[in-house]
Each structure stands twice: as structure tokens, then as C-alpha cells.
Amino acid sequence: MSTAPRIAAAKRDWGHDETGCTVLHIDMDAFFASLEVARHPEYAGRPVIIGIGNRSVVSAANYEARRYGINSAMASSRARRLCPDGVFLPVDIRYYREMSRRIFTEVFSQVTDRIEQVSVDECYMDVSGALLKWKSPRAIGAWIRERVAARYRITCSVGIAGNKLVAKMASTNAKPDGMLMIPLARHAEFVQMMPLRGIPGIGPSLEKRLNAWGVDSVADLAKMSVESLERVTGSAVGARGLYMAARGMDDRPVAPRAPEKSVGAERTFDTDTQDMRKVTSMLRRCCDDVASALRRKGFVARKVMVKLRFPDLSYATKGRTLESPTDVAGVLYPQCVSLLLSMMDMPEDSAGAVSLARPVRLAGMSAGGLVKAEDAVMQPSFDDMFDDRGHESTGSVAQSERMRGAEAALDAVRLKYGNGVAHLGI
């Protein structure tokens, strides 16, 4: 659910020179909600909100619901107050992922294999190698939109440009159910008519810093030197990125089959809780889910992160790098407990405490720094090499392998009977 700003004046004919405009950004409109309307035609024309329960947040909302001021990450209870007559539905992520897989396989992949999928409902496409057959990027975009609508009864918006930045900004301003092509010669003009938040990656914090320097639009941003931008951002890389973006430039290639960055799991408690046992038990279940997903996908993780959400809906995250990459919940879980205590400013030896320092609404964890399991090097430390008696030991690496074997044995059980049916004590 895109919340990027749009400008009505941007949704117009920018010209017909498609030379060099071989990057498409495809974004399916209100994807989760649109899929629900597609399988429940009786909801057509009504506000549909995905996310139910007093403790849940809005995952998606169709355009009818957005007219009521409903946005993603809004508390579902507030959304219901804003739109009491709306259709509120639970998240059916398995269905959404399956439909996404079908659309990518049955439609997008019929054009080219140069596809960079960035989410279940969004991708970049490099069509430079497909023009011999398809003749023009516009023809490809039109065919995709027609085929998705005809087969799946949902709409998608397409941006066409010479690079990923402008293509994405074009699809944003084409929404809903539109297509916008920006010729190479007009990239800078198009970008510079946008507000700062129109550039992907500029969030509230950076916007405030730029505002403090008298920069209120992309046009203002384009007047700044790289040196000034570096003083604002504190980063040479960030400064260069902003300098290029303000001129409609982007040298990032479309990267097919981009590797996953992380695998995570999180859950919201029925009521806010300070109960240590409840929170750690939740983290343990999340570790089980994440470790199982890592093994299924053939990854191991080098980093672990804990995420907490508090009653005021604020977030906190904290992570660390592991000594050795892993796909074992029994290794991830103790790290999560340690991170939890650190986030609560509680000493490491307080894992057995009854109560946390502050109440928690949601807890979760993610595993990042993913590498293919076959490419990972499991390097034991000196402590791993010897047991307490000074004898050679298989150490934590071998222990981890035994834990992995036990957890893997449960994967088949969970696959058949559900993730929550069995857990190892860790």
C-alpha cells in the first residue's frame, strides 16, 4: 500500500519518445484488498480493509477505504471508527503470496526473465532484450495491465522510464490503474516537480533536515551541491544518491532474482504485557518459524534482530552479528533474549525475571545477512574446540548441527499439521 505523495499535474502525456526507456516498474493497486474483492465480488465498490481485531493494524485498504483517511499501519480500531460500515477482513497471506506467484509466472515472466521482484505486489522489469518481439515498452506495459485485469480481476499501474528511480515515481503518479511513460529528456523535469517525499528513500527525518537547510522540494534539492548535501546527510554515499535523484539519474541495474535480505516473524499480544515469560515464549515461536523458513529456502543467517512495539504504537529494534551463520532456532533464541534485555535496559542475568521494564504490544524477530547454506563457512572459536576438561570437543558448531537435525525433523510435522503444533524446548 503506497503512501508516497502524488501530484495530479504529473499524470499527463510527457511525450512519445520511448528511446532508452527500457525499465518498467509494475505495482499492483491495493493488492491485498483488490484480491479480496476479486474473490468476493459482493464487496465491489465498498471500502475494504485488511486487518481485524482490536490489537491489529491495517495491512491494506482499497481506494474506497482510503477516502476515509485509512492508511497502512493504522490501528484497526481507529480504522473501524473512521469507517464503521467498511468490510474488515483478516490477512490471508498464503492466498496473496500464491496469487503473486501466479501473476509473476503467468504474466510478467512471459515478457522477460529480467525481473527484480521487490515485494509480493511490486517489481522492476528490464525489457531491453524483449523489444525485438514486443516493439515498444508501452506495448509491453499495456499488455501486462490488460492481462492482469482479465485473468485476475485486479489492476496494476506501470511506470516506464530509463531507470528504476523515475520508473517507480512514474508508476506512483499513474495510480490507480494507469500507465505513465517519462522520456529520457524529461526525467529531470518530472522529478523536480515533486515534493521531497516523492523521492523513494526520503523519509520524515531526512525531510526535516533538508527543510532546515531551506530545501522544501526536489527542485530546491537540485540546486544543492554534493558538498552541501554531504554536510546535511553526513554521508558521501547518501549525498551522491540525493544529487543524482534530484536530476532524475539512477545507475542501479535491474537485478533479477535479488537475494532475500531477511526472514522475520512477529505477533501481536491479545493485551499489552510486561510478562517476561509471555514475551520470551513469543520470541521462541518466532525463532522456530524463522529457522524453519531459512532451512526451507536453503539460507543461513549472519545477523539477528528483535523488534518490539509498545502500547503507544512506537517501535524499537536492536540487532547483532552472530559469530557463525545459522538456521537453528536454538541458536537464534538466546540471542533474541539477550537483545530483549538490552532493549529494556535490564542486566543480562535477569532472563529469569518475572516482569519487563515496560509493557509490550508486539514482539518479533528477524534473521538477516542471509547467505546460501552451501556457501557458508562454519568457523569454530577456540572456546568451541575444547570442553571444560580441556579435551578436544566438537563444540558449539557440532552441537548446533545436532540441534539443526532435531529441528529439521519437526519441519515435516509442522508442514503437515501447522507451525504451532510442535516446538523444541530452547
From TrEMBL:
Domain of life per record: Bacteria
InterPro entries given in the database record: DNA/RNA_pol_sf, DNA_pol_Y-fam_lit_finger_sf, DNA_pol_Y-fam_little_finger, DNA_polymerase-Y, DNApol_IV, IMS_HHH_1, Rev_trsase/Diguanyl_cyclase, UmuC
Catalytic activities: DNA(n) + a 2'-deoxyribonucleoside 5'-triphosphate = DNA(n+1) + diphosphate
Free-text remark on how the cofactor is bound: Binds 2 magnesium ions per subunit.
Family, per entry: Belongs to the DNA polymerase type-Y family.
Subunit structure: Monomer.
Biological role: Poorly processive, error-prone DNA polymerase involved in untargeted mutagenesis. Copies undamaged DNA at stalled replication forks, which arise in vivo from mismatched or misaligned primer ends. These misaligned primers can be extended by PolIV. Exhibits no 3'-5' exonuclease (proofreading) activity. May be involved in translesional synthesis, in conjunction with the beta clamp from PolIII.
Annotated protein name in UniProt: DNA polymerase IV
Species: Bifidobacterium ruminantium
Gene designation per UniProt: dinB
